[in-house]
Design brief:
single chain; 208 residues; alpha+beta; eight-stranded mixed sheet; 9 helices; 44% helix
């Protein structure tokens, strides 16, 4: 998949331009039939300043972080109902390396809530995609219908820094099929969560 992007022509978007372009296209994903929205997450740690539950996690207040996630249930129920009303589904592949990183422990709690509210998420172990990586990690990807594929860009600290937008229909379809295939091979998030995350002690955050 990375090779396909290297060989393609895309537009590098600064953060504000990326967010504006993404939002403009997102709610029209239903106009592309069953293509829907697909997200592929590979990195094991990010920074999410401005997200209250992440900020509580990052300062070491795990109980407050979980409470803030739980408090978002009504928001996500409405959000995923709005997505359904717009005629598309939201599908995610989350790659997990062992041991689970502190960030990923936090994110999986949030993703579990999203799954309960309507997101279709599958967990894939890193070794299951090793043949696709060939020494270089697969990129972070978001695909909106047949409208656009974004390679999501983060800075060295793991903070969102914009994206590269691709609009070639053949490229979008090919990358979506790769992600769909990985998704089909994955484990349902709730099953993985109960087996590998639920019993973990509160994560230790460096510098908290």
């Amino acid at each position: 998949m990375r090779r396909l992007l290297i060989e393609a022509s895309g537009d590098r978007l600064a953060l504000d331009d990326y967010l504006e372009d993404f939002d403009k296209r997102f709610w029209n994903a239903g106009s592309f039939g069953e293509a829907g929205f697909w997200k592929f997450e590979r990195q094991q740690s990010f920074r999410e300043p401005g997200v209250e539950s992440w900020e509580a996690f990052f300062r070491g207040d795990w109980d407050a972080s979980l409470a803030l996630i739980a408090g978002q249930r009504s928001h996500y129920e409405q959000y995923f109902q709005k997505i359904a009303d717009h005629g598309f589904g939201l599908h995610r592949v989350r790659v997990v390396e062992e041991p689970v990183t502190p960030y990923l422990q936090w994110e999986l709690h949030l993703l579990r809530l999203k799954e309960q509210c309507g997101e279709d998420t599958r967990i894939v172990q890193a070794d299951a995609i090793s043949l696709l990586e060939s020494g270089t990690q697969l990129p972070e990807i978001a695909i909106i219908g047949s409208s656009a594929l974004y390679e999501i860009i983060y800075d060295d600290d793991g903070t969102l820094d914009g994206g590269v937008r691709y609009t070639d229909g053949r490229l979008i379809a090919e990358c979506r099929e790769i992600i769909r295939g990985i998704h089909r091979s994955g484990e349902q998030l709730d099953s993985f969560f109960k087996r590998r995350v639920l019993s973990l002690p509160p994560p230790e955050v460096e510098g908290a």
